[in-house]
């Protein structure tokens, strides 16, 4: 009897000692991976929510995370998901026949994608390279973002006046941008507005606000929606009835 009790006690003691060991996280070989993945999820959420301001590069430990997000299918799924909601909203709008129902779309990483370029920049882990980006943009080879092209065609079909507003420099990138949009099927918009000399050096918020204010207050357009991958596309004045932020964990434009 005493022997049995003794055995039971030893067994209990061993069970108590071993249980926490087997679940201690540092025994799991994937712990380092898990904590990086979870850090990068938090980082990306904070970036998308505009809780981290003026960040310059993607943290190096998040290179794989951002690469997987951008190229592994989730980015496209997020865009398609957002697009369904934008299209539900569009379907509630009664488009007037006065021709003043307007919609604003940003260009870079909204209508057309710079993912091919940013792949070479380690998905934003490398710092912004204005000359490199200019050379890339001059080639006019940015592919359309399919979900946004569908939205664009829907807007044009419904009779909205679509304005493409970009911070790209008009003098140097105007023609390449026009050609690029055309070769990717963005046909039927009202106008492409690029950054002219007058806005050189201004923040995107200020420049884009002034453009929208000219459209609304100067020309009488009603801005029903505004879509961009940067918060600076959507902030400021005359922001429109609804603003839609598209994902972009690769760079921040102030
Ligand atoms: C918004 O409008 C106000 C009043 O006109 C102006 O002072 C301010 O600079 C504008 N903000 C931006 C970001 O353009
Ligand atoms: Mg953009």
From TrEMBL:
Q: Is Signal among the key words of this record?
A: yes
Quote the CDD domains the UniProt record gives: HAD_VSP
Gene3D superfamilies per the UniProt record, alphabetical:
HAD superfamily/HAD-like (3.40.50.1000)
Q: Which residues form the signal peptide?
A: 1-23
Q: Name one Pfam family in it.
A: Acid_phosphat_B
From the UniProt record, which GO molecular function terms apply?
A: acid phosphatase activity
NCBIfam families tied to this protein? plant-AP
Record-given protein name: HAD superfamily, subfamily IIIB acid phosphatase
Species the sequence originates in: Actinidia rufa
């Amino acid at each position: 009897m005493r022997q049995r009790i003794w055995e039971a006690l030893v067994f209990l003691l061993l069970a108590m000692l071993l249980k926490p060991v087997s679940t201690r996280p540092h025994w799991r070989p994937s712990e380092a991976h898990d904590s990086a993945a979870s850090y990068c999820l938090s980082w990306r959420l904070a970036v998308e929510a505009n809780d981290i301001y003026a960040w310059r590069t993607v943290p190096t430990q998040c290179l794989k995370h951002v690469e997987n997000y951008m190229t592994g299918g989730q980015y496209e799924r997020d865009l398609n998901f957002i697009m369904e909601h934008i299209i539900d909203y569009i379907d509630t709008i009664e488009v007037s026949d006065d021709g003043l129902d307007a919609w604003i779309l940003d260009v870079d990483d909204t209508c057309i994608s710079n993912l091919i370029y940013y792949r070479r920049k380690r998905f934003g882990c490398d710092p912004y390279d204005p000359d490199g980006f200019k050379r890339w943009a001059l080639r006019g080879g940015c592919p359309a973002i399919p979900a946004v092209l569908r939205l664009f065609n829907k807007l044009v079909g419904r009779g909205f006046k679509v304005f493409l507003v970009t911070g790209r420099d008009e003098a140097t990138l105007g023609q390449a941008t026009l050609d690029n949009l055309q070769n990717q099927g963005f046909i039927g918009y009202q106008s492409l507005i690029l950054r002219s000399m007058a806005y050189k050096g201004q923040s995107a918020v200020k420049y884009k606000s002034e453009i929208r204010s000219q459209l609304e207050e100067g020309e009488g357009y009603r801005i029903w929606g505004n879509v961009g991958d940067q918060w600076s596309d959507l902030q400021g004045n005359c922001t429109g009835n609804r603003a839609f932020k598209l994902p972009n964990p690769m760079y921040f434009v102030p």
